[in-house]
Amino acid sequence: MHWAGDRATRQAGDRAMRQAGDRAWARTMLAANAPVVLRAGLVKGDTGAGMLAPGQVVGMTDDLPSRAELLGGITAELRSTHAAVTG
How far is CA 8 from the centre of its chain? Predict the structure, then answer.
C-alpha cells in the first residue's frame, strides 16, 4: 500500500540521517541493543545491566517525599551549587 506521503517521509528521514552523521549510527546501535537490555531488566530481573519500562520503575521507588520536602531539597541543592560556582 502506498500513500502520497511515503516518499516525502522517506526523503525527510534520509536527510535527517545524513545531517546526524555518526549520531544516527549510534541511535541505530542503541535501538538494536534494546531487546537485550529489556530482557536483562524485565525477564532476568537484572536492573543494573538492563532497563525497565517507566511503569515498572515506579514500583521500585521507596523514597516518596512530600512536595514541600522535594522542593526544599531541590532549593537547597540549587543554593549550594550556586554558592560553589559563584564563590
Answer: 28
